[in-house]
Structure formats: structure tokens, C-alpha cells
Amino acid sequence: MKIIKTANYKKLVDNLSYREKQKHVNGFEKGLKKILINKEKYARSKGPNMETLEKNKATLTKEERKKVMDAGATWNHGPNGEPSPAVWKSIVDGKDWYVCNTHRAFQCKPTLKGAIKSYDFIETTS
Fold it and tell me: Is the entire prediction scored with pTM above 0.70?
């Protein structure tokens, strides 16, 4: 791929016909739309705030709890210092969110696997 300097690029665009310029603009607009759509998806993936998550807390299913425990994402807060899951679930607007938190930080993820992965970071904040 040949790199075009800005000055040469302007000359190149100036010499294009109207139709060719429109193709160029339309291609740019399509690319920009893709960027905006991805940015919107990313913004939505941050999830609800902590207060909303806590209000809508739900218990993990047996399978989910087993995955968390097997992955080692645990706190020793159970009876007699036994391990308990460091990930919990909240259902907000019909969507499951998985949360891993300490008193200093929290990570909210749309998948259980993502929340388990976030445990490594959250553990450093305790």
C-alpha cells in the first residue's frame, strides 16, 4: 500500500470528478457510521451503576456458582472463613449482569466469564 502525503492527497481529490468525490465521501461516511455504532455498543456495555445492581441482586445458579468456585474467584467470607464466590449476579431490565467488587472498586460484566476474569484486578484493590 502506497502512503500518500497530505498535499498530494489534496491534489488527487481536487482532480477527481464529482461522481468520484461522492464515492469517496460515501465511503468515509460509511466508515464513520461503523465507528459511531461500535462506540455506542461500547458505551452500553459499561452496564448499570452500583446502586441499581445492588437493588436487583439475584442468586447465582448452581452451575454459575460452580464455575466461579472452580476458577478460584473467591473471598474467604463464608462461615468459619470458608471460601464464598467473589462474583454475584444482578438482573436489570431483564438482562443478567455479573459483578465482582470490593469496597473500593467494582467491575460489571454482561457474561460470567468476563466477571471471573475481572476478579484478578478487583482482588488487587482489597
Answer: no
